[in-house]
Amino acid sequence: MNVLITAGPTREWMDPVRFISNPSSGKMGYALAEAAREAGARVTLVSGPTALPSPRGIETIRVETAAEMAREVFLRAKRADIIILCAAVADWTPARRARQKIKKSEVGGRRPGFTLRLKPTVDIAAVLGRKRRRRGQVLVGFAAETRRVEANARGKLERKKLDLIVANDVSEAGAGFGVDTNKVILIDRHGRVERPPRASKQTLARKILRRAWKMREELLEAQ
Ligand code: C5P
After folding, report:
1. Per-residue pLDDT averaged across 2-29, rounded?
2. What confidence tens digit (pLDDT) does each residue in 175-200 have?
3. Substitution candidate for ligand 1 out of 85, 147, 154, 158 with most atoms within 8 A of CB
4. Which of 68, 104, 137, 168 is the most exposed place for a label (fewest CB within 10 A)?
């Protein structure tokens, strides 16, 4: 069983000393990678910058930008039986990366302020969802929301053609970015909804993997 997992944030550089990012710690994705390894899978982890050590027994590929993450994932997606896209990939990146540090004195002209132009990044999940998949391949996404959690997650599940989505309300205490616990809703492409109680990211990781595994068995039976 080959399991491919993305984790952590990405960094989108505007010049050599500044980037746009988000507070993702990588904890959920690393917990998933370790749980998959414990279950006996061969695991590849494509990770944005995190403070976490590379887990033992797991091929870990460190990347910085959304573009780098996309490249490493696309190279490995075909071989994967289960793909879990847990990374908080930046949705936008600076339209251009200045080669030299942008000087405060050189922007804004007479008016104070600075407008940074952004362009969309590649949506790794959506590309994988569109592509023909390996037989029985299960694609799992995450949705970090601050409102209408279930409805927004369902929209993403459909738009990106995922098999399963794990939604969390990042505005709640004890859920989402940085913390050790999480409170999630699991929604699959058949519309089945599960609301496990708040639990450690390790416990939830095992649960998510079991669901993905079940979906794989269903897919293989149906195909
Ligand atoms: O659209 P949104 O960023 O909320 O979607 C979240 C899901 O899509 C996550 O599974 C995330 O890892 C994935 N994603 C991706 N590539 C992007 C943006 C999001 O794979 N550029």
Report:
1. 97
2. 778 788 889 999 999 999 999 999 99
3. 85
4. 104
pLDDT at residue 104 above 90? no
Angle separating helix axes 27-38 and 201-222, nearest 10 degrees: 60
Q: How crowded is residue 126: how many other Cβ atoms within 10 Å of its Cβ?
A: 15
Chain center to CA of 73: 11
Q: What does the alpha-carbon distance between residue 158 and residue 106 come to, in Å, rounded to a whole number?
A: 45
Closest-CA residue, ligand 1 atom 21, reads 123
Q: Could you tell me which CATH class the domain 2-100+118-222 is placed in?
A: alpha beta
pLDDT for residue 201 is more than 90: yes
Selected catalytic residue, list 2, 22, 152, 182: 22
Is 182 a catalytic site residue? no
Handedness of CA 136, 142, 147, 149 (dihedral sign): positive
